[in-house]
Amino acid sequence: MSKGQPKPLMYSGIHAVESLLRHRPEAVLELFVLDSRAKRGDARLETLIIAARDQGIAVQMARRESLDKLAGPQNQGVAARARPRRPGDELALDNHLDRLGRPPFLLILEGVTDPHTPPRIPWAPACAAPTPPASTR
User: Fold this and answer.
1) What is the spatial distance between Cα 9 and Cα 122, in angstroms, rounded to a whole number?
2) Residues 40-54: pLDDT tens digits?
3) Where do the H-state alpha helices sit in the chain?
4) Where does the pLDDT of residue 33 fall: very low under 50, low under 70, confident under 90, or very high at 90 and above?
5) Collapsed DSSP state (helix, strand, coil) of residue 116
6) For the whole prediction, is pTM greater than 0.90?
7) How far apart are CA 72 and CA 66, in angstroms?
8) Sheet with 58-62: strands ordered across
9) Is 13 helix (H, G, I), strand (E, B) or coil?
10) What are the backbone dihedrals phi and psi of residue 9, each rounded to the nearest 5 degrees, phi first?
11) End-to-end CA separation in angstroms for the chain
């Protein structure tokens, strides 16, 4: 990896991986799937596997112990190793909002100190259909 490029991260869970494959497939380096769920023919996992393979992304079957070590025990049987999104700036945010074609619904946070809070934030306003997240940091 060249200097200045961030280290790839593990994204786990069906929704996180599905979102990566839909919105940033070029960032996904490989997909890890729990072998026992894949063998059962889990429809949601099968959809993710097909989407990854259609994008030319390597799919690895993994045992429970290996997947838990890679992505933590709350992985829902799937994880993706991917390059993190580069932080944007105010101009990138303005461009993003201009391309929406509708008034944005924004949730703006400041001073969040609990490291467990940010992953839970999107669920609170989910029923109100907010604009997808964009970060300037």
Assistant:
1) 20
2) 888 889 999 999 999
3) 14-23, 35-39, 43-54, 64-71, 90-98, 117-120
4) very high
5) coil
6) no
7) 9
8) 9-12, 78-82, 28-34, 58-62
9) coil
10) -115, 160
11) 22
